[in-house]
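Subgroup meeting minutes
Present: P.N., E.W., G.H.
Scribe: E.W.

1. P.N. recapped why we're keeping a running log of single-chain structure predictions: easier to compare across weeks, and new members can see raw inputs and outputs side by side.
2. G.H. added today's entry (145 aa).
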Amino acid sequence: MLFDHCASCRRCCHVDAGEAALEVTLTSQEHARLGSICIETQCRHLGPSGCRLGEQKPVSCSLYPLAYDPSERQFYFDTECPLHEQYVAQLAIPQSDARQHLASMAGVIAKLTVAEPQYLAANYAIDSDYFELAAIPSSLTVSKA
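Output recorded in log:
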């Protein structure tokens, strides 16, 4: 499975020494439930097997290693994620983990475009400032939100 590597890598849940803290963008419902999540060194929800929030983890965390620019309606990928090449290669395979992840996130983004467009703009502002992003070729995306 593509994302099996994530539990051991944990790069997305850590901030390197000397780097600015990462404020995780939350939807209004997530904010009501979780308050805030600021990763200064390691996310407080990170356990030995990965995220302890499971299915309740924030959209921005579920979206990673992708980022979404609502003004361009474009998905991007954090090129520093070790899964970058494998993820992009899998997008050409209809039932792959990457293709299913992208399709799932496109559905979530479509709902948020209507319900919380300000969340999408805020999340992309943080992602584009914090991560090294490369556009996912439009020929590989499932649909644009």
